[in-house]
C-alpha cells in the first residue's frame, strides 16, 4: 500500500479512537485521551507490526490475528490501556505479552524504559526485530513466562498485561511500586473485565473495572 493511503487510514483510526474515548467518558472520567498517548498512536506505524497480508487492515478498529493463536488488540483498546496507565516520562514499565511488539512501541514513546516479556519464542524474536527497525532502543525484551514478571528490574512504576489471567498474578502485584498502576484484563474466558489496579502507599491494592473485554488467556504457571 502507498504511504499516503496508510497515512489516511491512520488519521481515520485516530478519529475512531477519539470518538470511542468520548463515548466512554463517564467510565474514564474525561472526554479525551491524553495528548501524549494520541501522539504515540499517530507516530507508531501499526502496519509494521502485523503480518504483511493484513497490512491493509492494520488501522481498522478490530483485533487482528498475528499467528501463534494470538491477536494484536484493536487500536482503541491499546490507546485505552495506555491512557489508563498515565505513563510519565521517567517511568519504568513492564509489559506482559509482547506479541509482535506494537504495544511495546507505543509504550516506548512515553516511558523511560520498557521491559517486555513474551512466552513464545518466534513472535518474541520478530518483535525484537520490528522494534529495532522502529528505533525503540529503550525496550528490553525477553522470552519467558510473564506470569512471574521480571524481578531483577523490579519494582516497576507501571504494569500492563495483554493476556488475561483468572486473577491478578501475585508476582506482578509484588513487583509494582507503591503508587504504581497496573492495567490488566482478568476473569474467566467469557467474563473478562479490563481492570485498573493501583497500589496504595501501604501496599494495598484497589481495583476498578473499566469495561468487558476479550483477550487470549495468559499462558504459564499461573493459568488454571
TrEMBL record:
<dbReference type="InterPro" id="IPR000682">
    <property type="entry name" value="PCMT"/>
</dbReference>
<dbReference type="GO" id="GO:0032259">
    <property type="term" value="P:methylation"/>
</dbReference>
<keyword id="KW-0949">S-adenosyl-L-methionine</keyword>
<dbReference type="GO" id="GO:0004719">
    <property type="term" value="F:protein-L-isoaspartate (D-aspartate) O-methyltransferase activity"/>
</dbReference>
<keyword id="KW-0808">Transferase</keyword>
<dbReference type="InterPro" id="IPR029063">
    <property type="entry name" value="SAM-dependent_MTases_sf"/>
</dbReference>
<dbReference type="GO" id="GO:0030091">
    <property type="term" value="P:protein repair"/>
</dbReference>
<feature type="active site">
    <location>
        <position position="73"/>
    </location>
</feature>
<comment type="function">
    <text>Catalyzes the methyl esterification of L-isoaspartyl residues in peptides and proteins that result from spontaneous decomposition of normal L-aspartyl and L-asparaginyl residues. It plays a role in the repair and/or degradation of damaged proteins.</text>
</comment>
<keyword id="KW-0963">Cytoplasm</keyword>
<protein>
    <recommendedName>
        <fullName>Protein-L-isoaspartate O-methyltransferase</fullName>
        <ecNumber>2.1.1.77</ecNumber>
    </recommendedName>
</protein>
<dbReference type="Pfam" id="PF01135">
    <property type="entry name" value="PCMT"/>
</dbReference>
<comment type="similarity">
    <text>Belongs to the methyltransferase superfamily. L-isoaspartyl/D-aspartyl protein methyltransferase family.</text>
</comment>
<keyword id="KW-0489">Methyltransferase</keyword>
<dbReference type="GO" id="GO:0005737">
    <property type="term" value="C:cytoplasm"/>
</dbReference>
Amino acid at each position: 500500500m502507498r504511504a499516503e493511503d496508510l497515512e489516511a487510514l491512520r488519521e481515520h483510526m485516530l478519529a475512531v479512537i477519539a470518538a470511542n474515548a468520548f463515548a466512554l467518558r463517564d467510565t474514564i472520567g474525561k472526554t479525551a485521551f491524553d495528548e501524549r498517548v494520541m501522539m504515540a498512536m499517530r507516530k507508531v506505524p501499526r502496519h509494521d507490526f502485523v503480518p504483511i497480508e493484513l497490512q491493509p487492515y492494520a488501522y481498522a478498529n478490530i483485533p487482528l490475528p498475528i499467528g501463534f493463536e494470538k491477536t494484536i488488540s484493536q487500536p482503541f483498546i491499546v490507546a485505552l490501556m495506555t491512557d489508563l496507565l498515565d505513563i510519565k516520562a521517567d517511568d519504568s514499565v513492564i509489559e506482559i505479552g509482547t506479541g509482535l511488539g506494537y504495544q511495546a512501541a507505543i509504550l516506548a514513546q512515553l516511558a523511560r524504559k520498557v521491559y517486555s516479556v513474551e512466552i513464545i519464542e518466534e513472535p518474541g524474536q520478530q518483535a525484537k526485530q520490528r522494534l529495532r527497525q522502529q528505533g525503540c532502543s529503550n525496550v528490553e525484551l525477553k522470552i519467558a513466562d510473564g506470569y512471574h514478571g521480571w524481578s531483577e528490574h523490579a519494582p516497576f512504576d507501571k504494569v500492563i498485561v495483554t493476556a488475561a489471567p483468572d486473577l491478578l498474578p501475585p508476582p506482578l502485584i509484588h513487583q509494582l511500586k507503591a503508587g504504581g498502576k497496573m492495567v490488566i484484563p482478568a476473569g474467566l474466558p467469557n467474563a473478562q473485565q479490563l481492570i485498573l489496579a493501583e497500589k496504595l502507599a501501604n501496599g494495598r491494592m484497589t481495583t476498578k473495572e473499566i469495561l468487558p473485554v476479550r483477550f487470549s488467556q495468559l499462558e504459564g504457571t499461573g493459568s488454571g
